[in-house]
Design goal:
The structure is a homodimer.
Chain A: H1 3-15, H2 24-31, H3 35-47, E1 51-52, E2 60-61, H4 63-86, H5 94-102, H6 107-116, E3 142-143, E4 151-158, H7 162-170, E5 178-184, E6 191-194, E7 200-203, E8 211-215
Antiparallel strand pairs in A: 1-2, 3-8, 4-5, 4-8, 5-6, 6-7
Helix pairs in contact in A: 1-4, 2-3, 4-5
Chain A binds a DNA duplex through helix 3.
Chain lengths: ~220, ~220
DNA sequence: CATAAATATTAGGCTAAACGAAAGGTTGTA
DNA sequence: TACAACCTTTCGTTTAGCCTAATATTTATG
């Protein structure tokens, strides 16, 4: 499979955990290609048995497609761990290189790398590394935007998006931090939360769809 | 530049240190393509200023081509060190993966990797890692086949060729071993050498063009 | 030193993997 | 029910490789 196809597949896989419907348009935006190109690629991926997609209908990964995608995500996230832990890349900078390395890794390499890194459970953004945990998946996380007021949650994962990560860094929040959701601002959909040290913080409406939490 | 072009360039660069003339045919053998494909690629590389090559004439890297090739070799060899030292790949198995990773590495990544590996001087085959030493190059090595009888030499480098490495392993020789050249067999061009422990060993005619040594 | 063998180049054509523009279907919502 | 938004099909383009066959040049040999 070509690197490009792998990227399409990974994009579709990751959209599954973003709580948004997977559409042709969404893919074309993320991949920066025209809609016809997406349709063409979907047909190609469908003909190879990675997904099902009847015209104008839902896009669903087959078990085979899911398995392959999981391996791609696993590979990607293991490289992210390497880049962050060993090569000392800042979290908001690992994505690009991990993407490149991902397409240059065969199965054996990934196993060796996994051993070397000592079977990490999560990538630097908090994403589960498929295969290293016991059945846990990203799907267990909830979006911060969906949490009702006055609820205590722990940040477990954030989206691997450069611009968001820049913003996230400026908030002085870290993965694993525990926060309490205080109030959803009706006016602009921003969210006020309280940090462990008692300080209050407002998180923008867009960002709360990029932060995943678990109840605490 | 495409990965393929990079491979051509690297091949040409490495032939410089093999004491054989760089010919179209040699390249086509190494790269497993037809001769016309080589000519085509040489023209393309020449038009981009990486080498000079008038028809039926010598192939010579320009300073620009040399610089790029050196970086490619540096990258390749650093990955080889990583695969061997960190991921525990056997020496005869690092090449394939290093090649893939090489094309997925940007400048920053290589610098970080170099730091992480603590600026190694040589790759697992003994090849110099350009940029990490002080002016030393592979060109200082001599081919074992060129050494006169009754000379003591140290193996400093071997060619990064899978089949050869298998054979080399079976000889129970290691890089850095010191051996004494005893006799060039006129009949079949094989070479008899004496190991440090006094045992004698015959090395085939083909292999002595894959082993590089320094006088001791 | 002439000619055969080896090697290199040119010419022409092929394939695969993308991409997009234009035009026409489909669907959901007002 | 109509139209806007979205999706698909068709067809054509580009890029980067590769190849065979024919031709040209160099090198090696009798």
């Amino acid at each position: 499979m070509s690197p490009n196809k792998e990227n399409y597949l990974k994009t579709i896989y990751e959209l599954n955990y973003d709580f948004t419907k997977i559409t042709n348009k969404r893919i074309s935006e993320i991949m920066n290609v025209s809609a016809p190109s997406v349709t063409e690629m979907l047909n190609s991926l469908a003909s190879e048995g990675y997904l099902t997609h009847s015209p104008y209908n839902k896009i669903v990964l087959t078990p085979k497609g899911n398995k392959v995608s999981e391996k791609l995500v696993r590979t990607h996230r293991l490289w992210e761990v390497f880049l962050h832990e060993c090569l000392k890349y800042p979290v908001d900078n690992v994505h690009h290189n991990a993407d490149a390395l991902e397409h240059a890794s065969d199965d054996g390499l990934i196993d060796h790398l996994n051993d070397f890194l000592d079977h990490p459970q999560r990538c630097p953004h908090g994403g589960i590394i498929p295969g290293n945990g016991q059945g846990e998946t990203d799907a267990d996380d909830k979006l911060l935007s969906m949490i009702p007021d006055n609820t205590k949650v722990q940040i477990v994962r954030v989206s691997d998006n450069y611009d968001f990560l820049q913003y996230f860094g400026s908030l002085n929040l870290e993965i694993d931090d525990t926060i309490t959701v205080l109030k959803h601002e009706k006016f602009d959909n921003s969210l006020v939360v309280e940090k462990k040290d008692g300080s209050k913080l407002t998180i923008g409406a867009k960002a709360i769809d990029y932060i995943f939490v678990e109840l605490r």
